[in-house]
Amino acid sequence: MPGAVPRLYLVTDRHATAGRPLVAVVRDALAGTAGARGAVAVQLREKDLGGRDLATLARELREVTRAAGAGLYINDRIDVALAVDADGVHLGGRSLGPADVARVAPGLAVALSTHTRAEVEAAAQSPNVRFAVFGPIWDTPSKRPYGPPLGLDALRDAATVGLPLVALGGVTAARVAACLAAGAAGVACIRAVSEAADPAAALRALLAAP
Predict the structure, then answer these.
(1) pLDDT (tens digit, 9 = 90+) per residue, 91-127?
(2) Which of 23, 43, 77, 126 could form a disulfide with 98 if both were Cys (CB 3.0 to 4.6 A apart)?
(3) Backbone angles phi, psi at 125, to 5 degrees
(4) Residue 101 falls within a domain, yes or no?
(5) 105 neighbors 82 (Cβ within 8 angstroms)
(6) What is the distance between the alpha carbons of residues 175 and 205, in angstroms, rounded to a whole number?
(7) CATH number at residue 82
(8) SS3 of 116, please?
């Protein structure tokens, strides 16, 4: 189901698609979900776009994700999530809180970005939080401004809180098994899929990892 905790959370970056249109890359990638409907969700995370342009892009992605049986989460923008009938909203550290989302849009699921066990514990107190993204686990260019990698031990500790965690940061197909063994419910990535010559094959490899 699209609203389930994703085994793979595909985060968008239209500047990291090897020059290809973002929607086309996501469509190609989701072709790799055959037989695994509901295992993937897409987070539209294009922070530099204004509301109108973001909504236009979100509508295109809603069509693509719905056709593939994938979930769609919109970064921060509750209004855009509601306008395009997204499954949820993804909140960062400077966003509204889950309780605010519950008041404004009780039908939206919430995903949260977290970097510490304390943040996971706080997120677990909100009934509308479906899962939290935890990381960075390994070094990755997009997360270097947020500090050094947390590592698998931090993931293992945070997973004991009980809130489903999706591991982010330097995740490759070869590292998926380690994340799951540490207690993650799934993994998240940007470049491992969006920059791949064959996005569908890259996505399949991540889903097939033990």
Answers:
(1) 987 778 999 999 999 999 999 999 999 999 999 999 9
(2) 126
(3) -80, -10
(4) yes
(5) yes
(6) 11
(7) 3.20.20.70
(8) coil
